[in-house]
Specification:
Blueprint: H1 2-6, H2 14-18, H3 25-29, H4 34-40, H5 44-59, H6 71-83, H7 87-98, H8 102-109, E1 120-123, H9 133-150, E2 157-162, H10 168-181, E3 185-188, H11 197-204, E4 209-213, E5 222-228, H12 237-248, E6 269-270, H13 273-285, H14 290-298, E7 303-306, H15 313-322, E8 329-330, H16 353-365, E9 370-374, E10 381-386, E11 392-394, H17 397-415, E12 424-429, H18 435-443, E13 446-450, H19 454-466, E14 470-476, E15 480-483, H20 492-510, H21 514-525, E16 528-536, H22 540-551, E17 564-565, E18 570-577, E19 582-583, E20 601-606, E21 611-616, E22 622-630, H23 638-657, H24 659-662, E23 665-666
Parallel strand pairs: 2-3, 2-4, 3-6, 7-8, 7-9, 12-13, 12-14
Antiparallel strand pairs: 1-5, 4-5, 9-10, 10-11, 14-15, 16-22, 16-23, 17-18, 18-19, 18-20, 20-21, 21-22
Helix pairs in contact: 6-8, 9-10, 9-12, 11-13, 13-15, 15-20, 17-21
């Protein structure tokens, strides 16, 4: 069918037409397969593909397919046909042409996935807007060109890792092939690894960049290409734009980019596992004092762990062994990587009991009071603890941020009894709880607020270190935690080790639960009540309408925002719009935090102190909302604060997002 279809395309493939009886087009388009090459242990297979490449060059005599009245679509179809060599994605395009699915083709081919906060992340399918072989090669070629522009070292090196999703290993190998063909030394992990190991490896191996192929906690059909820069942090906006420009200048794959055979016996290629993972585990162990290690060793705490069918389990085992904790009790159905997430339809521990159901069953069976859960690439951590009612309380990211902030502070005081807290810093994103700010006011360290995303937190940490400050901790409400600076990103492995040790310490020394310790933190620094959730919306036009209305709230007049909720009961005192660059609270009406025009984000501060932020997600089709209200340490009417928070948040969502009007789907009910 494929050949018959292509022959309809206005004289395209005339050369093939002359010998169509002997040429199988899909076989002709197949990419080089490293497993085949390795099994053959010869260059015969690569030679065959070189012959196919020559045939492709002949076909390039015709540069334009005239299939539709849409010239842009015709051009992009032409590009895809001449550039793609993956038979599966090629077949998707061919089938769409055969069905005349022009709208689908226009969506796939006439817009590109933008290189942004998380590098690339999208569904795995054909098209320039998706994750596939061709897009990975184009991205790698552009990134390679940008690194060569920026870094003039004689020996350039990168580190590349991948998770357990479909095609992750292949995407990583394709990226490695591009860098090898440009004479980079490539440290390519030979097994699935946790995302935090890549930024750690960038610094450990003095690499110019690091790439992690992962879609983190997204559904099974997604994958991604996450980039770390020379400093071990994710790239900033200025680099994103320049990399995007270089990608657009290197869209046509080089012949060498497809040759996975170059990964065999290449002196520039190595597996960095033995250099990186033991060093990471040793650095983690150094964060614990000898008394704490001894306490862990003597404890018989039973802890249940789930890897969410991702990559975390082997590294959690190594971490717990290093800090002398008893081995975790694994959720057997979820400890091995599974690209279809067969027992975890929502592989995101943020989703609460929907995602942790099997872990709760396992904990109940083994009479364990604590559950630790990594997301599939092990950079986030969820925690649940049995409460007095015999049910598991799943901590929010803000609650865990408070607990880990307290724990890291206590650990610093133990390790550095003469250390100056005035020279220490903690960080949190702007949508996260301000509990660390309240701690800082009492304890004397400095608190710093950043934009959402660990790229901002990591780069802020680097700047603080340049100033001679010690960065103790940073967190984001989306269960992301950065303890110290060995990894300049969220790290679910180290967070799990510290939560388990904190739990052990509280249980053995203070006879307290994590929940009781959280209560003590609020009693000391003030109660912080927060809500964070989302609505689902896949229609960008609706999202645009919602935020346009909020920015022209007064009869359509530009730069006018809501003034109150609930018919004036709760008045808004300040508005900050980090999309447009407006802040009503500053003298020049400009925000202190960086402006990000590509992301919708508006924060409303109410006269009673409640702060609410509405924003879009950078990686998922979600309209997110966050709200927090804080009390002074002496204010003990916590239930009143919580009640006010719930009522106001419900009104904010209803009046500002208008979910009924736009048919927005709520977060799945636990």
């Amino acid at each position: 069918m494929c050949i018959n279809l292509l022959l309809k395309w206005t004289g395209v493939l005339k050369i093939i037409n002359a010998s169509r009886k002997s040429l199988n087009l899909l076989e002709f388009l197949k990419p080089c397969n490293i497993a085949t090459c390795h099994a053959a242990r010869s260059l015969q297979s690569c030679s065959n593909h070189e012959g196919k490449a020559a045939q492709r060059s002949e076909l390039a005599a015709k540069k334009y397919l005239d299939l539709t009245p849409d010239k842009e679509l015709n051009q992009q179809l032409t590009n895809w046909i001449y550039w793609d060599r993956n038979p599966q994605t090629m077949q998707q395009i061919v089938d769409a042409v055969d069905c005349e699915a022009w709208d689908w083709l226009r969506s796939r081919l006439c817009q590109r996935m933008q290189f942004g906060t998380a590098g690339l992340r999208g569904e795995m399918r054909a098209g320039f807007d998706s994750m596939n072989d061709l897009v990975v090669l184009q991205t790698s070629q552009g990134l390679c060109a940008y690194i060569k522009q920026q870094c003039e070292q004689n020996e350039r090196s990168v580190v590349i890792g991948y998770d357990g999703r479909h095609h992750s290993k292949r995407f990583a190998e394709l990226a490695a092939t591009v860098f090898l063909s440009n004479q980079f030394r490539v440290h390519l992990f030979g097994r699935t690894v946790a995302t935090p190991f890549i930024p750690f490896a960038v610094k450990k191996l003095n690499c110019l960049a690091g790439v992690m192929v992962t879609a983190s906690h997204n559904p099974k059909q997604y994958n991604g290409f996450k980039l770390y820069w020379t400093n071990g942090a994710q790239i900033v906006a200025s680099d994103e734009q320049l990399i995007e420009q270089n990608i657009m200048q290197h869209l046509e794959p080089q012949e060498s980019s497809w040759q996975l055979c170059s990964l065999i016996g290449n002196d520039l290629l190595s597996d960095p596992y033995e250099q990186v993972v033991p060093a990471y585990i040793a650095a983690l162990q150094d964060e614990f004092t000898c008394p704490m290690l001894q306490l862990n060793h003597e404890s018989h705490t039973k802890i249940v762990y789930t890897a969410m069918q991702g990559v975390g389990y082997p590294y959690i085992k190594l971490a717990f062994m290093a800090i002398q904790l008893q081995p975790v009790i694994p959720v057997e159905q979820q400890v091995q990587p599974d690209p279809v997430f067969s027992t975890t339809p929502l592989p995101n521990p943020e989703e609460g009991k929907v995602a942790l159901n099997l872990a709760i069953q396992t904990a109940t069976e083994h009479e364990s009071n604590l559950i630790l859960a990594n997301d599939p690439d092990a950079d986030r951590l969820a925690v649940a603890e049995l409460n007095e009612q015999g049910k598991f309380h799943i901590f929010t990211g803000n609650e865990l941020g408070a607990l880990l902030g307290w724990w890291v502070l206590q650990s610093f005081k133990q390790r550095m009894p003469n250390g100056k807290l005035s020279n220490c810093s903690m960080l949190a994103s702007t949508v996260s709880s301000k509990i660390l700010k309240s701690m800082a006011a009492v304890e004397g360290f400095s608190f710093h607020e950043t934009l959402t995303g660990f790229k901002w937190m990591a780069n802020m940490a680097i700047e603080l270190q340049r100033q001679g400050r010690t960065v103790l901790f940073g967190f984001e409400e989306a269960i992301g935690f950065m303890i110290g600076t060995k990894v300049l990103d969220k790290d679910g492995i180290s967070a799990a080790a510290h939560v388990a040790s904190m739990y052990t310490y509280l249980h053995e020394k203070k006879y307290m639960s994590l929940q009781e310790q959280l209560h003590e933190i609020y009693d000391t620094y003030g109660y912080h009540a927060s809500i964070g959730s989302y609505l689902l919306c896949k229609d960008q036009q609706i999202i645009c309408k919602i935020f346009t209305r909020l920015r022209s709230f007064d009869a359509g007049q530009q730069a006018t925002y809501p003034k109150s909720i609930l018919n004036g009961e709760y008045k808004i005192s300040q508005v900050r719009d980090l999309t447009t660059g407006y802040d009503s609270s500053t003298p020049n009406k400009k925000p202190v935090l960086p402006v990000t025009p590509s992301t919708q984000m508006i924060t409303f501060t109410f006269e009673n102190g409640l702060v609410a932020t509405l924003r879009t997600s950078g990686t998922e089709p979600k309209l997110k909302y966050y709200a927090e209200i804080c009390g002074k340490p002496e204010y003990k009417k916590w239930s009143e604060l919580k009640s006010t928070l719930k009522r106001m948040t419900a009104a904010i969502v209803d009046e500002f997002y208008e979910p009924k009007r736009y048919g927005l789907e709520p977060k799945p009910v636990e």
